[in-house]
Amino acid sequence: MSRINSPAELEVLRKEILAERNPDKPCITLCSGSACHATGSGSVSAAIEEEIEKQGITAEVDFRRTGCHGFCEKGPIVVMYPQGICYLRVQPEDVAEIISTTVKDQQVVERLLYVDPNSGEKTTLEEDIPFYKNQQRLVLGSNLKIDPKNLEDYLAVDGYRALVKALFKMTPEQVVGEVKEAKLRGRGGAGFPSGVKWDFARNAPGEQKYVVVNCDEGDPGAYMDRSVMEGNPFAVLEGLMIGAYAIGANEGYVYVRQEYPLAVANLAIAIGKAEECGLLGNDILGSGFDFTVKVHRGAGAFICGEETSLLNSLEGKPGEPNARPPFPATKGLWGKPTNINNVETWANIPLVINKGAEFFKSIGTEGSKGTKIFSLVGKVNNTGLVEVPMGASLRDIIFKIGGGVPGGKQFKAVQTGGPSGGCIPENLLETKVDFDELTKAGAMMGSGGMIVMDEDTCLVDIARYFLAFLSDESCGKCTPCREGIRQMLKILTNMTIGLGKEGDIDLLLALAETTRGSSMCALGKTAPNPVLSTLKHFRDEFEAHIKHQRCPALSCKELIAFYIDPEKCKGCGACLRKCPADAIMGEKKQVHLIDQGKCTKCRGCVEVCPAAFDAVKIFSGEPVPVTVSEET
Amino acid sequence: MDIGKIDQIIDKHQGEASSLIQILLDIQSENNWLPQEALTRVGEKLTVPMSRIQHITTFYKHFSLTPKGKHEIHVCVGTACHVRGAQDILDTVEQVTGVKPGETDPDLQFSVETVSCLGCCALGPVMVVDKEIHGNVEQAETAEVLQNLKQAEIVENLENLKQSDKPEILGLCACQ
After folding, report:
1. Which residues of B fall within a CB distance of 8 Å from A451?
2. May I ask the CATH class of domain A371-454?
3. Of A81, A216, A359, B93, which is most buried by a Cβ count within 10 Å?
């Protein structure tokens, strides 16, 4: 693509691109996000290319590999345009039929459609599937339409229109004002008003300023930023440039985890293409605004999601936090004023500028505007990425969009906000997703991880899990965080192995208070949250562990024992064959026995015992009955 | 590791000390781990003291100062995988390979690592063996995948042994 020198030239190019595209021409789109990639979208892609050629319809059909569609549970996903027919779990062997039936004969391949798990009803169009129907995809929507490696695709969906508007029709002050007026709050976790943050950096003295994209998405169980960066890197870059213009920066950095290789690759391609046609570099579109951007890969440190740690890492140092103030807005990268926002925040900027603050403000609640992307995962039927307006209830997200808990199990809690967040029980499911409401419920919005837990999940173990993660990730610079987390972890670990003591809960609360009050950065300040929220809502589980060495969820390995009910066992031998530890004894057609000394508690016997017999029982907090062998 | 290759990587980043982490990442992706001579070279070229390089390489989890095994196994222990039974998968991996998380066996066959989220939460629990993602894995499948790898290694070792034995046997024959 040749250099674009002015907004007029950009519009000419956009018109040319759109003129070449016939919206009625059949187009096969294939999700090529990381989850679909793992389930085989690479080989499906090869099969589609081969089949198009083989059936001789190269000129009649377009093929596009897009970013993540979000319905990761059912990948690889193929959507056929112009109709919008959605095929799920597509394998290479399905491709020939899809092309001959849908592209050539305009018919639907019924067996690949979405089937409602409750009614058995099939849904043909993507937009009608309950998972998508109840979402509002303002940020993720473009992921379905564009090839992240193709700048023309981005221009075809109004790409860079917001940049032109900002550069040519607005002053930097007006841009900041618009973002402030829109009440956009940072999507990285803390929810600080973005416009106010921009203003700080803009008003900070100094010629050299920087803007930074935080794509160090470290929360386990969250992958929203990954999908936005992989699926629509141009939107993030466009948002970043608008921010740079508003603040007065000419250099930007994108900090991406090296664990996200596809995000790094797609971003590098996007930067290359933008540079090639003058959408990055000097005198962008003839506006006199210069901007360059560099990519920095993180090397595996959760703490680098914290902004001062991230800046230290960008400078080539260990990612340890600094005390604030001074805030990065006045003293950031190499001591210069720096504005850092998360990927999703930057991706919202083109929307705010294009559609205006009034439109953005019309979505959401009083204190939280716009939409939010969540990664809805764990014990839920429709796992995937979900974008909903702020103010949607947790119940709607989990049950309407997520389709509820699989296997007829009982919902127990939903964890939001990652290691800094908390668990919300069933009776608070009407809570709305809103920065302030979630905090009131004892959790937090965080970056958007939403992990659903069912009756089999032990909440003491979940609290232990998060502290183990944080203990590992604490940089160790300040004592309250390093030692506080370690001591809380020790107490929780003891509880899960039956060594809990009276007074442990009080000790946990005291440690939580100290860690929260005196740690230097957000990692330590929020580290007690998983403990405090589980204690608040599930204290009885903690007490059962301490007083009776009983795990109510039958999950903690040290506190459970497996037992074969002699009344129910038919001696089929399924468990005996499955047991990896040779802990099960018994002749065919005779009652089987578990040797408790050998049992590794792998649950294999529970899984294989036929449902009709249901003979394997799990005991916790009470002695296992002794079965007298039939031979004696 | 070839010094020329290290220099090439350093030059790619214009030899800037602020690119230290990026340079080490590139060396590790080329060589799979960071040998001492590579670190020394980087220190000389960037004029960065070894203490700082050591700080960086031990602070960030991705860096390895010891050689990795031929097969790299990563078990995701992110929250979504954890609630879906990642610990059982990790236990099975340890049982079959005999290697603890974060370690490599003395024969350099297997390295086992835990990762805190691969962003494939919909497929949990997830295990990655030699860059191939296995989603929704159960204990039996985990054991099977690893047993097959071990079996293939044994066969390969036997064949190598047979080939390397040949000249010796001939030698013996000649002596006799």
Report:
1. 79-80, 83
2. alpha beta
3. A216
